Amino acid sequence: MLTDKNIGSNFLAMAQKNPDLLAMVRDDSLLNYEQFALVVLSFAKKMQSLGVEQGSVIAIDTDDALDAFASLMASSLLGAKWIAYKNYAILSSVVQPTHWFQSSSFGDTEFVQFEKIDASWFPGEDAVLSTVPEFDIAIDEDEPWLYVNTSGTTGTPKLLSISQDLMLKRSKAVSDDFVERQTVFCSLFGCVAFPYLTRAIACLVNGCTIVDSLDFALWNKASVNMVYGSLTQVNALMAGVSLSQKFPLIHVSGAKLTDELAVDLLENFEKVIDLYASTETNRSYKNIKYIAEDGTLITKGQALDSIVEIIDSAGNPCLPGQNGVIRVKNPYLVRGYLNNPEAQAASFKDGWFYSGDFGMWGINGELEVKGRVGDVINLGGVKVNAAEIDKTLKSVDGIADAMCFKNPDENDTDQLLAFVVFEDGVDNIERAKSANEACVEALGALRTPRRLVEVNVVPRAHDGGAQRWLCQNLYRENRAKKSSA
């Protein structure tokens, strides 16, 4: 009998139950659960013939959701571990793949010899879904399955592993969002990004439909009723868009969702959920935003199955309106980081995960995130809020994006710098002068960057979060290049 801890066997059971239900809708194809299950089993057999077995580590190089999710489920059935090749450079210190697979649409890679995912991986037209399990692998509940990295908004990305048992528990815990035969889900993330992977698994285990497309017309045709993305992705997709028909729901996470942005989103969605979640914890808390009958924006907090606390420096719970550090406890926490005892000790304490966020409780129970630990910069003993400086810089006409950071030069450690992206066609010198004046007026001279450095793009994580540590690295590297020139 297959263990409950095997993600793949749970998916196959769902396929037996709902063979006719659409599993994946794409721009050019449809797959119901029976067809998708046949693809998964065909992938598993092909991988097995190539030597993949329990304990193997497979790396997948793809931007094709079918290849990604089929290989993911097949690796589960075989008891193999799975990583996205695009993250391999970060993960290479903790895991070494035994097998390398790549979508056939990709060109050859110089450094790795990939096995191409071609037509031989897919089932023939006469394939039939059997009621007899073809793979019977017992999975240890602590055995790593997925290797992933965090976004790195509070420093360099941390590495962690997630077991099949933990992922299954997370998938079952979100069954109120992913309702069998009801939820039709679309992600704005790429298919190998962890926010998409974890929700795709929840869809397939809970009997929901994935719509892998950014085509609004297809969303309508497929009856999409839940969209998920970071604020950066949502803004890029929805900027200037006014849909003739609203979609029911969008989940957003990452950077702070302002009331102004929420109102804009509610032009195209009936309800907006500002989700508090992380790779380490699963989803933890919801802020639900909608327009009341009188036209006002309503925000209400909704507790989930996590315990979320905001505590002061003494560890005492904060009252509504009082700033503190956010910590989370639930049954789905990862055990810690890989090969990073210092970060693990700082983030995981007494069964709690300390997220690195500052926040407060609002009057309607909403969780208001006020900033990140990495947003607090110490300048000669004075602590400044970097996010507030970023906001002031970006408020200046002609500045498309900005991010401030502490000068990494050991001789100027009390100096504040900022990367800025100027809009096309503006006078950069005049815009820089206006930015300086805006910061001095709003924040004071100490909190005004000494120098603005023009860049094409500021480094952000996939969820839009600031990577100030990377700004420092890039600034240091550019200085070194100029010195050696």
Helix and strand layout, with pairings?
Elements: H1 7-17, E1 22-26, E2 30-32, H2 33-49, E3 57-61, H3 65-78, E4 81-84, H4 88-91, E5 99-103, E6 115-117, E7 144-149, E8 159-163, H5 164-173, E9 184-187, H6 194-206, E10 209-212, H7 216-222, E11 226-230, H8 231-238, E12 247-253, H9 259-265, E13 269-278, E14 282-291, E15 297-303, E16 307-311, E17 324-329, H10 341-347, E18 348-349, E19 352-361, E20 367-372, E21 376-379, E22 382-385, H11 386-394, E23 399-406, E24 416-422, H12 428-443, E25 451-454, H13 468-484
Parallel strand pairs: 1-10, 3-4, 3-5, 5-6, 9-10, 9-11, 11-12, 12-13, 24-25
Antiparallel strand pairs: 1-2, 7-8, 13-14, 14-15, 16-17, 17-19, 18-19, 19-20, 21-22, 23-24
Helix pairs in contact: 1-2, 1-3, 1-6, 2-3, 5-6, 11-12
Distance between the termini: 67 Å
Number of strands: 25
Which of globular, elongated, flat, extended, rod-shaped describes the shape? globular
- What is the beta-strand fraction? 25-35%
Mean pLDDT: 91
Structural class: alpha/beta
Number of helices: 13
Query: Quick one: CATH class of the largest domain?
Result: Alpha Beta
Rounded radius of gyration (Å):
24 Å
Q: Write the CATH fold name of the largest domain.
A: Rossmann fold
Which sheet architecture does the biggest sheet show?
9 strands, mixed
How many separate domains? Answer: 3
CATH architecture of the largest domain: 3-Layer(aba) Sandwich
Fold and architecture overview:
The chain has 485 residues and is of the alpha/beta class. The protein has 3 domains: 7-19 and 31-182 and 199-208, 3-Layer(aba) Sandwich (Rossmann fold), CATH 3.40.50.980; 250-373, Luciferase, Domain 3 (Luciferase, domain 3); 380-484, GMP Synthetase, Chain A, domain 3 (2-Layer Sandwich). It has 13 helices and 25 strands. It has a 9-stranded mixed sheet, with helices on both faces. Strands 16, 17, 18, 19 and 20 form a 5-stranded antiparallel sheet that branches. A 4-stranded parallel sheet has the order 4-3-5-6, covered by helices on one side. α8 links the parallel β11 (226-230) and β12 (247-253).
